[in-house]
């Protein structure tokens, strides 16, 4: 039992702010008030912030198509190949809450720039790695940078665009780049792998992040006021929840290969449970908790995050299974599999642009429910994939429905997750919604790959390899369709009724 005399360690914010200022060559004013400065044009600033989010999402899927080449290039084992993907997602998902709170307390521009520097440097290290250890470590650090970028960037969008039609359009852009990032990662990964080699996957991310975005953010966001809060950083809460999420995500990803009854997996789940209890106890005692109860007392934050977790469970798995079907069953090259994501990416952009207008016309709840049902129909269509099919017959039609439904749903669920959140907590709200999507994705991918693998194993006895693999993919997509249909029902029940607003 925790004693009152040793509740949790705290961090002196003034010292951290000054240290951050030294890192960036700036003089930091430790006063809690915002820095004054000329007003920035929201358009260019939104473009930079959206590009940063795009790079974060791109990194989640850009290695998927290139895994066979990466494995051959540096001699990865089966486990090592998996962790090239998982190490990024694990660090990203586990550290998002801490990154979001740090951006609220230390300044969002500052945390964003440090995140971009870490992200870009880690991508560069991954591109020159000659061993699996270095590559996996670099991907882990890259996830750390992403955990700082994503919540800080979303909080800055909330600062730039007050509630109203402008924020709706901004979230539409945010949804477009977030959804398109996953599809673009598969596309760009295929193109770069087949033309320049797999190392250019990481070189391109490093150049785009460390050089281009860092320079543009200094130019556009440097003119904006940097919101910073007062209070003590909840280090005990940040450490306990980060370790809990790390143990949970590690257990879920490892269980796909070792089995759910593996001793290490069981111990990791137990550790995650204990650490979450410790986190709750710390939060109840800390005067400035990492997860303040007030965050869930406004708007529809709780409902939005529950729905986003369910959406994430299908979202990440989609970009895992679909390229595998295209390459392993249809026999497409990495380049062809990547180009096959263009229709989906285009529909993501279209759906994100339409979502704010649709919400004005029929209401946010109706828009979210309709989008989720469209997404479910697209997933159900994929549940009838053929082992002797083709891209036009089996993939193109579902991709259109999935792109439209996924992007529109993402915009609305993100809006629910930040609705009514006060400015000082916007970074934390951004970190939370990204956390629920990532953790939901880890859970969904672990469950779906396990079930798909079981279906494939059962079909192997009496069918060809392509037919057995297709059986597994159909199982994954059928369960995904059912999950999203249930999410649509929950969206209708959990989100409040609102009146239609005039555009």
UniProtKB/TrEMBL annotation:
Record InterPro entries: MFS (IPR011701), MFS_dom (IPR020846), MFS_trans_sf (IPR036259), Sugar_transporter_CS (IPR005829)
Coiled-coil ranges from the UniProt annotation: none
Membrane topology summary: Multi-pass membrane protein
Localization per Swiss-Prot or TrEMBL: Cell membrane
Keyword set includes Electron transport: no
Keywords annotated in UniProt: Cell membrane, Membrane, Transmembrane, Transmembrane helix, Transport
Domain Major facilitator superfamily (MFS) profile span(s) in chain numbering: 45-499
Transmembrane segments: 45-63, 83-102, 114-138, 144-161, 173-194, 200-221, 233-253, 265-282, 302-322, 362-384, 396-418, 439-457, 477-496
Highest taxon of the lineage: Bacteria
A matching Pfam family: MFS_1
Record-linked Gene3D superfamilies: MFS general substrate transporter like domains, Multidrug resistance protein D
Keyword hit for Electron transport: no
PANTHER family to which the protein is assigned, alphabetical: BLR6921 PROTEIN (PTHR42718:SF46), MAJOR FACILITATOR SUPERFAMILY MULTIDRUG TRANSPORTER MFSC (PTHR42718)
Name of the protein: MFS transporter
Originating organism: Catenulispora subtropica
């Amino acid at each position: 039992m925790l004693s009152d005399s040793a509740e949790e360690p705290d961090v002196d914010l003034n010292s951290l702010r000054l240290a951050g200022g030294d890192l960036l060559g700036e003089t930091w004013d430790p006063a809690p008030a915002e820095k004054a400065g000329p007003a920035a044009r929201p358009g260019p600033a939104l473009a930079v912030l959206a590009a940063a989010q795009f790079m974060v999402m791109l990194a989640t899927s850009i290695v998927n198509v290139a895994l066979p080449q990466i494995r051959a290039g540096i001699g990865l084992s089966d486990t090592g190949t998996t962790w090239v993907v998982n190490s990024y997602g694990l660090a990203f998902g586990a550290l998002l809450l801490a990154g979001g709170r740090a951006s609220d307390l230390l300044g969002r521009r500052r945390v964003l720039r440090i995140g971009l520097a870490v992200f870009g440097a880690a991508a560069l290290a991954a591109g020159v790695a000659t061993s699996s250890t270095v590559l996996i470590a670099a991907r882990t650090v890259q996830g750390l940078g992403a955990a700082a970028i994503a919540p800080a960037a979303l909080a800055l969008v909330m600062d730039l665009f007050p509630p109203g039609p402008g924020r709706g359009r901004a979230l539409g852009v945010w949804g477009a780049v977030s959804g398109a990032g996953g599809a673009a990662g598969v596309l760009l990964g295929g193109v770069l792998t087949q033309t320049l080699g797999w190392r250019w996957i990481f070189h391109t991310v490093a150049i785009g992040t460390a050089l281009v975005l860092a320079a543009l953010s200094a130019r556009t966001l440097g003119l904006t006021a940097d919101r910073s809060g007062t209070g003590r950083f909840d280090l005990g809460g940040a450490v306990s929840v980060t370790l809990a999420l790390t143990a949970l995500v590690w257990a879920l990803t490892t269980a796909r290969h070792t089995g759910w009854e593996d001793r290490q997996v069981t111990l990791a789940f137990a550790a995650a449970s204990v650490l979450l209890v410790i986190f709750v106890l710390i939060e109840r005692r800390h005067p400035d908790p990492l997860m303040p109860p007030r965050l869930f007392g406004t708007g529809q934050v709780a409902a939005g995050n529950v729905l986003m977790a369910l959406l994430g469970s299908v979202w990440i798995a989609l970009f895992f299974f679909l390229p595998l079907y295209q390459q392993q069953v249809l026999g497409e090259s990495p380049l062809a599999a990547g180009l096959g994501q263009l229709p989906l990416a285009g529909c993501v952009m279209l759906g994100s642009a339409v979502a704010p207008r649709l919400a004005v016309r029929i209401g946010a709840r109706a828009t979210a429910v309709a989008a989720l049902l469209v997404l479910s129909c697209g997933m159900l269509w994929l549940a009838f994939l053929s082992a002797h099919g083709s891209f036009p017959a089996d993939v193109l039609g579902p991709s259109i429905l999935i792109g439209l439904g996924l992007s529109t749903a993402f915009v609305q669920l993100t809006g629910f997750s930040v609705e009514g959140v006060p400015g000082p907590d916007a970074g934390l709200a951004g970190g939370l919604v990204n956390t629920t999507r990532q953790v939901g994705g880890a859970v969904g991918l672990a469950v779906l790959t396990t079930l798909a693998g079981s279906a494939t194993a059962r079909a192997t006895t009496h069918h060809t390899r392509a037919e057995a693999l297709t059986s597994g993919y159909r199982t994954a997509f059928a369960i995904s369709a059912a999950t999203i249909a249930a999410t649509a029902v929950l969206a209708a029940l959990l989100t409040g009724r609102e009146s239609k607003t005039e555009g």
